[in-house]
Amino acid sequence: MKRIVHLSDPHFGAADEKVARAFLQQIHSSPPDLTILSGDMTMRASHTELADARNFIEQLPHSRILIPGNHDMPGAQHLLERLADPFRRYRNSIQQDLEPELYQDGIHTVCLNSSRSWGFYADWSEGRLSSSQLARAEEQFMAIQDAEYRVLVLHHPLVELALKGRAVVKPLVPLLECMERSKVDFVLCGHFHRSIIMPVGLNGSWQSIVSQAPTVCSTRLQGEPQGYHEISFDFDHAEIVHHVYNGSDFSASTATAFERKASGWWQSRLLL
């Protein structure tokens, strides 16, 4: 049985240190095979926030993979830096690679940076992907044909929620087509600070399991407590447990089981 811990949006600068410590203690009590952090390490990418985020990240179990989010570049108060080199601070403090790739123990993980520093649209926090990014991700997945599981990581979500000013990643249909052609098993994202676990597909020929994780330790809540997802899988079976913070530690809130068929992953039952 392989295990991935998926966490997102710690938002150092608006993080609850007690919750962060509780998460680290729990995850080290039973380290996963892979830890994935899907963006927004900080609030405004200040040097202090990035240092706190780096300290947190360095305590995550190996192996680990992470990507930036829209909060991990300077805001409008540093407009020139945001426009000229938006991820310079992130690269200097966290890691150089904005779209890392990892193949380990049959798990092939590909990351896409969906965060943009600016655009000809009102909300610069929206997630955008380019056609070249999607084409490259598909090439990466196709390059390792014997991968048992394919994992796609981005910051911005695929599943819409009724939250004002919160849009799904764009362009959604080409992304779903890329996932379908690549037969992606798991898509991990965050941004909404709300937990969503469900299969998603375009036309029924292939479905991927989407794990939209809540914030792991931020005080910026959206109607639910801090939490994270634990993904366990073996052969054609998978289970995702949503752990929530209960005031002292994290406990299982829901558990959802899935089965992989010729047309991808289908929810089989709720375990909790």
Features:
alpha/beta, 22% helix, 6-stranded mixed beta sheet, 13 strands, 272 residues, 6 helices, Purple Acid Phosphatase, chain A, domain 2, 7-stranded mixed beta sheet
What does this protein look like?
With 272 residues, the protein is of the alpha/beta class. The protein has one domain (2-270): 4-Layer Sandwich (Purple Acid Phosphatase, chain A, domain 2), CATH 3.60.21. The protein has six helices and 13 strands. The chain has helices at 17-29, 47-58, 79-84, 88-93, 131-143, 172-182, and strands spanning 2-7, 34-38, 64-67, 101-104, 107-111, 149-153, 186-189, 196-201, 207-212, 227-234, 237-245, 250-261, 264-270. Helix 2 (47-58) links the parallel strand 2 (34-38) and strand 3 (64-67). It is globular, with a radius of gyration of 17 Å. The two termini are 20 Å apart. The mean pLDDT is 94.
Give a quick rundown of the structure.
With 272 residues, the chain is α/β, with parallel strands linked by helices. It has a single domain, classed as Metallo-dependent phosphatases (Purple Acid Phosphatase, chain A, domain 2), CATH 3.60.21.10.
Tally of separate domains: 1
What do we call the CATH topology? Purple Acid Phosphatase, chain A, domain 2
Largest sheet: 7 strands, mixed
Classify the helix fraction into a percent range: 10-25%
What's the helix and strand layout?
Elements lengths: L1 E6 L9 H13 L4 E5 L8 H12 L5 E4 L11 H6 L3 H6 L7 E4 L2 E5 L19 H13 L5 E5 L18 H11 L3 E4 L6 E6 L5 E6 L14 E8 L2 E9 L4 E12 L2 E7 L2
Parallel strand pairs: 1-2, 2-3, 5-6, 6-7, 7-9
Antiparallel strand pairs: 1-10, 4-5, 8-9, 10-11, 11-12, 12-13
